[in-house]
Each structure stands twice: as structure tokens, then as C-alpha cells.
Amino acid sequence: MKQPLGVILAGGQATRMGGGDKGLLPLKGGTLLSSVIARLAPQVATVALNANGDPVRFAHLDLPVLPDSIEGFVGPLAGVLAGLDWAAAQGADTIVTAAADTPFFPCDLVPQLLLASEGMDHPLALAATPDAERGKARHPTFGIWPVALRDDLRAALAGGLRKVVLWTDQHGGRTAMFPDEAAFFNVNTPEDLARAEAMQ
Ligand SMILES: Nc1nc2c(ncn2[C@@H]2O[C@H](COP(=O)(O)OP(=O)(O)OP(=O)(O)O)[C@@H](O)[C@H]2O)c(=O)[nH]1
User: Fold this and answer.
1) Ranges for the MobA-like NTP transferase domain (predicted)?
2) Measuring from each residue's beta carbon to the nearest atom of ligand 1, which residues come in under 6 Å?
3) Which phi and psi angles does 88 have, rounded to 5°?
4) Which among 19, 78, 124, 136 is placed 20 to 30 Å from 148, CA to CA?
5) Is residue 12 a known part of a binding site?
């Protein structure tokens, strides 16, 4: 199988941060996005950014910027669909997504997702970490997604589906377990950003 393409999910409204682009916030001498790019790029064939609005604000990153093809803010599945449409145009089979607000995700994200989805006709898996109450907590913005299911996803979104795990469960999606919950620490508020600055 060909190496997955990488898609960074940077859509959304960042209401808890007071609006704007969380990815462009400063972190450890760079930005949240530069941390995410540095982690994802070595694991995939090439990287694109899913974000809405004027792409000029990301010009310095020199990445393709993919807007949602669905009107309104309908959640991360819209970004996954934008990524799959882009990957189809590149002749790719799969994408791996990572969220722009999660700067410390595992450096073995892609190999573990590939392992978890081994043998599937259409590789589909989400990252997960151990959870005391539920056994595991899935991280719906970190996954491997097959281009072959993009029209199914488009139809599901048009029909009102918004919940990522509902769609992945419907398609036999698997999970890749990662031991460290802290790796998926995501920045939603100014307090989270201060905490991320102090981490690692
Ligand atoms: N493409 C796309 N991505 C989204 C959308 N809403 C959220 N996301 C992405 O989904 C992930 C989780 O986002 P959230 O933290 O739940 O939402 P947010 O808009 O970033 O922030 P809040 O408004 O504070 O909830 C992030 O990677 C976002 O970029 C959307 O409408 N479109």
C-alpha cells in the first residue's frame, strides 16, 4: 500500500480560545501548527492543511490549504472529507489526520494506525488511549481514513451525521492503542496553552 498523505485539521471556530486560529498561537518558539507539522511530516508522504477562510494567513507554511466543501461549521468530519477529496486528486489511497491543537501527539502515530488497520480493504482506524471508566478513549481527530469511502462520508454528512465515532463504527473502524494520554493533550483555552508551554 502507498504511504498515507497527512492532513492537519485546523478548521473550527476556537470559541473557547476567543476565536481566531488556534494553530497560529505561539508555542515553544514556534506555533502549535509548526509543532504538529514537525511531528506529522516525517510520518507521511506529504502534508496539507484543512482550514476555512482566507488561506493567505497560512502562506508562510507553504502547504496546500483545503477548505471544507460543506457550508457552516459541521465539525472535523468535514475536514476529513476535504482531505479525502484532495488525496483522491493526488491518486492516494489513504490519509492520516492530526489536529492542529494537539502538539505532542505520538511520533509513531502513522505506523501504529497502519498496523491497526492491516488487512482491511479500506483502512480505517482511530487513535485511542486507556480510560479508567470506558476501557479506552478514542481520539476522533487522529485516524487513518480510506479515499474509497469518501462518497459514503459525503452522503453521511449531507444526511446530518456529525459524530466521528458513529461513522467509523458503522464501517468497522478499528483502534490503535497508545499508552500515553498526555500525548493527546489538546489546547482549547488560554490556560491550556500555558500548560502546553510548560509540558515536556
Ligand atoms: N474542518 C473543520 N474542522 C473542524 C470544525 N470544527 C472543529 N474542527 C476541528 O476539530 C478538532 C477539534 O475541534 P474542537 O476543539 O472541538 O473545536 P474548535 O472549533 O477547534 O474549538 P471550540 O470552538 O472551542 O470547540 C480541531 O482539529 C478542529 O480544527 C469544522 O467545522 N470544520
Assistant:
1) 6-166
2) 9-16, 22, 50, 68, 73-76, 78-79, 99-101, 141, 188
3) -60, -40
4) 136
5) no
| CB distance 105 to 16 below 8 Å | no
Question: How far is residue 150's CA from residue 40's CA, in Å, rounded to a whole number?
Answer: 22
CATH of domain 5-191: 3.90.550.10
Q: What is the pLDDT of residues 173-190, one digit of tens each?
A: 999 999 999 999 999 999
The ipTM assigned to this model is 0.95
Atom number in ligand 1 closest to CA 17: 24
The SS3 of residue 168 is helix
Cα 1 to ligand 1 centre (Å): 30
Pocket test for ligand 1, best of 8, 66, 70, 73 (most atoms within 8 A of CB): 73
Ranges of residues in the chain with a pLDDT under 70 are 1
Q: How far apart are CA 63 and CA 50, in angstroms?
A: 10
**Which tens digits make up the pLDDT trace of 62-83?**
999 999 988 888 899 999 999 9
Separation CA 124–CA 173 (nearest Å) = 5
pTM (two decimals): 0.97
Sketch the domain layout of the chain as residue ranges: 5-191
Residue located nearest, by CA, to atom 31 of ligand 1: 73
C-alpha 145 to ligand 1 mean position (Å): 18
Q: Which residues pair with 174 in a beta bridge?
A: 125
